[in-house]
Amino acid sequence: MTEQPSATDEKPEAPAPRPLRVDAQRNRDKLVEVAAQAFAADGVDASLEEIAKRAGVGIGTLYRHFPTREHLVEVVYRREVEGLCHAAEELARDHPADAALELWMQRFVDYIATKRGLATSLRLLLTTNSTLFSDTSGRVSGAMRGLVEAAAASGKIRADVDASDVMHALGGIYSAPNTPDWRERSGRLVKLLMDGLRFGARG
């Protein structure tokens, strides 16, 4: 009689993916960096062939790392969120609290530019990849909250500032018309917002 596996038998774990070679990892990182710039400038329909060319690799290399455009979009989006959160930590460490907040909000404009370029694919991913947004949801607003609270506690901005109000104000930049001077105007709006946050501060 053949022995049947018991319900308590453990299934063998799937082998961990092999790490990329140094040159392959370098190519992948460069592709993601170039793709982020291309999507911010030209939208999600930016040419994959041009992205590969600017990254110094062939289109076959791009598809080996990113089998579909949506896969590349997801990786770029995760990279942007990670970079924005990491920037908050670095800026808080290296600058006065109000300067850290202003510099981070300027960095947020770059993030918005990329997100605007990815908008169509992000809407598609929202319906097909629940983990993308569950993994990243709240991380950006949490990073801003830490910077706002630190600046308020130091007396560099108004003590009655609510971080969610600041995020709401910045959200208006996302929906602004995509004119050639959009980025320049967005930078000026950040400065105006910071002037308002600093007005009446005790520091």
Automatic annotation (TrEMBL):
Region Disordered, residue ranges: 1-24
Pfam families attached to this UniProt entry: TetR_C_43, TetR_N
Residues in HTH tetR-type domain copies: 25-84
One of the record's GO molecular function terms: DNA-binding transcription factor activity
Chain residues forming the annotated DNA-binding region: 47-66
UniProtKB keywords: DNA-binding, Transcription, Transcription regulation
Superkingdom in the source lineage: Bacteria
InterPro entries hit by this protein: Homeodomain-like_sf (IPR009057), HTH-type_TetR-like_transc_reg (IPR050109), HTH_TetR (IPR001647), Tet_transcr_reg_TetR-rel_C_sf (IPR036271), TetR_SbtR-like_C (IPR049445)
Gene3D superfamilies, per database record: Tetracycline Repressor, domain 2
SUPFAM superfamilies xrefs: Homeodomain-like (SSF46689), Tetracyclin repressor-like, C-terminal domain (SSF48498)
Protein name: TetR/AcrR family transcriptional regulator
